[in-house]
């Protein structure tokens, strides 16, 4: 920490890392950020924080930050620094040329879950109104798109059901495919407090995560299932509930539909814990006991993460959890619910803002004529009724030659998306790649235009956290790049001939509120007055909605959906006998673009491969050896760490460092409904490379 003296002023803003959305006082001395102090009145964190939010802000002033726009004709050329006018004019001209030559559908954009709601909104508007298509997708495609699909099908809206505070009323906490102590530390503290007070804990995860056994905490059940078998597990839970008479009949009769058909499906013998034991690898007796605890232990809340969504049946699993919660009446009050732990600061918001190729803001399908009319009237441009391309479709179309130009907002797709070779081939095939980011990342190596973005300390706007809480992000300094990030798409659109301008982000939020029923009561003025609000915020709920589906589901009746287990195509073989699963670590954040440029990197300077002692021994691998990790799509090298946290046959790594590039080996398999990549299941071989 640089000694900067006592702060002279402070600004309340929101952490730019995970989906907990902690509020901080950024304490300043002049233009220098002296320290980040957790804000005691923060709705999500109540004065707490973790090492990322509190100490890892140095990336905002890191010398690697690019402050000037740059252009180049070819990716083999040197970058040429230009002024903003030149960069905007050049970008717009290129988009228009490509649009004219190949048609409107040949261009598109990707929005970021790290930018503000207002910045996301203007990118999707630029694509729809100026590009003239629905080829806009959010980086949530690769994390929580199955949450959006699954919760919408069952409950009627694409968001978690509870506020964080509600965990204090839970009697049974079930954590599925999430590692909150590393991924969502401040919420994990709330959860642990409740467990220490006596709430029972069920952990469903292949790894023995810290929560399973830590000081004063011991999970009642840890169910270490085989990666890729979540749906078999949730069906087995539901089978116990239905066949042992544990259904909340009153709740189901009053609030739900489709129960009879679903109950017949779930009661089939193939869904029993005994029948699925050979699939999940978890003893049937443990599954039965855990299911009984969930159904009869009082208020039962499910918290889940990417270990649920990033599978070929991610959407099915989300619906399976919703079925289970409805069958047991665990919806619509404190201490219950189905709650996604969102990875990035604004995953919820980037989805809410209409940056999906099939949905306008507020999760309304583009085929809905009445909804399109609202936007067409305000924007003065027609909106196509057909969905546009999803991110993986953009890559495939680029390789086919039909998709030629891409605007990428704050997302390093070349490092974070699966099957790196395929992604980089797609980027290399495009005529124009425009990257808006803080740093020259892996994607920018394929870019023709680089437009420098702003850090959270320079932003004015809002982030929406995992509990639908809209938090204000307030600038503590002027944009170091000389341009607000929300202005960039507006100016590109204008240069392409579409008038799009705002005086400030507050006006953008006013427009969002005007076209989005769940946001109709949101304004900067209200947020500044109340601190934050949780959507829906409208005439019916002027101060927001902490808990959803209280008196009825958003879709009317909650819908039971049969969830047949279909094994993933990705199976271990003689050549690739182990299963790789991936995740993250406390001190680092996603692809590490931010945290690797802070002192946090000292805690985790490289990605390592966790391997069970048995699997290591048969391969002659010792702790610290360098090993090769290969799948059918690629190979990388990293250091082995021998750990009995892993089950035999499963290895684990993080994806924070581009040198290791874990996604070199992950495959193109994806969720059947949303194309969310199956990061959590890759058949691999591991071999000794050299001694460390
Ligand atoms: Fe930031 Fe998440 Fe840590 Fe809170 S828990 S300080 S939001 S990284």
Automatic annotation (TrEMBL):
Tree of life domain: Bacteria
GO biological process, one term: respiratory electron transport chain
Keyword Repeat: yes
GO CC annotation, single: membrane
GO molecular function annotations of the record: 2 iron, 2 sulfur cluster binding; 4 iron, 4 sulfur cluster binding; formate dehydrogenase (NAD+) activity; metal ion binding; molybdopterin cofactor binding; NADH dehydrogenase activity
Record keyword Iron present: yes
Annotated keywords: 2Fe-2S, 4Fe-4S, Iron, Iron-sulfur, Metal-binding, Oxidoreductase, Repeat
Domain 4Fe-4S Mo/W bis-MGD-type: 8-64
Protein family (similarity comment): In the C-terminal section; belongs to the prokaryotic molybdopterin-containing oxidoreductase family.
Name the UniProt record assigns to this protein: Formate dehydrogenase major subunit
Originating species: Kibdelosporangium aridum
């Amino acid at each position: 920490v640089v000694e900067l003296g006592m702060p002279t002023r402070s600004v309340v803003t929101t952490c730019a890392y995970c989906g907990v959305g902690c509020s901080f006082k950024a304490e300043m001395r002049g233009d220098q950020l002296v320290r980040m102090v957790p804000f005691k009145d923060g709705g999500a964190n109540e004065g707490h924080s973790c090492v990322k939010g509190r100490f890892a802000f140095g990336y905002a002033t890191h010398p690697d930050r690019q402050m000037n726009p740059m252009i180049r004709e070819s990716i083999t050329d040197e970058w040429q620094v230009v002024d903003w006018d030149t960069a905007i004019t050049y970008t717009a001209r290129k988009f228009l040329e490509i649009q004219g030559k190949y048609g409107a559908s040949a261009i598109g954009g990707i929005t970021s879950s790290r930018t503000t709601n207002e910045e996301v909104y203007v990118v999707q508007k630029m694509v729809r109104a100026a590009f003239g298509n629905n080829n806009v997708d959010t980086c949530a495609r690769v994390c929580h798109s199955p949450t959006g699909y699954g919760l919408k099908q069952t409950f009627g809206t694409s968001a978690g059901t509870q506020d964080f505070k509600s965990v204090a009323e839970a009697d049974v906490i079930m954590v599925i495919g999430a590692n909150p102590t590393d991924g969502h530390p401040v919420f994990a503290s709330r959860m642990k407090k409740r467990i220490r007070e006596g709430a029972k804990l069920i952990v469903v995860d292949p790894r023995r995560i810290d929560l399973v056994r830590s000081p004063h905490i011991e999970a009642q059940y840890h169910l270490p299932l085989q990666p890729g078998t979540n749906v078999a597990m949730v069906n087995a839970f539901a089978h116990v509930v239905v066949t042992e008479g544990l259904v909340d009949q009153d709740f189901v009769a009053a609030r739900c539909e489709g129960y009879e058909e679903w109950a017949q499906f779930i009661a089939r013998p193939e869904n029993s814990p005994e029948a699925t034991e050979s699939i999940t690898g978890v003893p049937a007796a443990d599954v039965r006991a855990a299911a009984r605890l969930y159904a009869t232990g009082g208020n039962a809340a499910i918290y889940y993460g990417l270990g649920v969504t990033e599978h070929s049946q991610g959407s099915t699993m989300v619906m399976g959890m919703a079925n289970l919660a409805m069958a047991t009446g665990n919806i619509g009050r404190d201490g219950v619910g189905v709650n996604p732990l969102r990875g990035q600061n604004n995953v919820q918001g980037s989805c809410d803002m209409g940056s999906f190729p099939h949905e306008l803001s507020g999760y309304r399908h583009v085929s809905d004529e009445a909804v399109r009319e609202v936007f067409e009237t305000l924007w003065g441009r027609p909106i196509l009724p057909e969905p546009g391309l999803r991110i993986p479709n953009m890559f495939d179309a680029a390789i086919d030659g039909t998709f030629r130009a891409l605007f990428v907002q704050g997302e390093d797709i070349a490092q974070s998306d699966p099957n790196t070779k395929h992604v980089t081939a797609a980027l290399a095939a495009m005529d124009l790649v425009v990257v808006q980011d803080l740093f020259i990342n892996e994607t920018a190596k394929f870019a023709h235009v680089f437009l420098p973005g702003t850090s959270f300390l320079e932003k004015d706007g809002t982030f929406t956290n995992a509990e639908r809480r809209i938090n204000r992000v307030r600038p503590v300094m002027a944009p170091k790049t000389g341009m607000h990030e929300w202005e960039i798409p507006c100016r590109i659109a204008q240069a392409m001939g579409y008038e799009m301008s705002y005086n400030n982000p507050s006006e953008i939020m006013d427009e969002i509120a005007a076209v989005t029923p769940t946001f109709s009561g949101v304004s900067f003025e209200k947020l500044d007055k109340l601190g934050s609000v949780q959507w829906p915020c409208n005439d019916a709920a002027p101060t927001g909605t902490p808990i959803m589906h209280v008196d009825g589901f958003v879709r009317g009746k909650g819908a039971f959906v049969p969830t047949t287990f279909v094994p993933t195509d990705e199976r271990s073989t003689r050549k690739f006998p182990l299963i790789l699963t991936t995740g993250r670590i406390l001190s680092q954040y996603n692809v590490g673009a931010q945290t690797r440029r802070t002192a946090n990197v000292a805690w985790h300077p490289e990605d390592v491969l966790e391997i069970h002692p048995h699997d290591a021994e048969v391969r002659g691998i010792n702790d610290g050896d360098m090993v090769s990790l290969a799948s059918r799509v690629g190979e990388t090298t990293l250091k082995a760490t021998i750990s009995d946290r892993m089950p035999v046959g499963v290895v684990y790594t993080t994806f924070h460092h581009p040198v290791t590039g874990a996604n070199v080996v992950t495959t193109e398999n994806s969720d059947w409904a949303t194309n969310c990549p199956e990061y959590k299941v890759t058949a691999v071989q591991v071999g000794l490379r050299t001694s460390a």
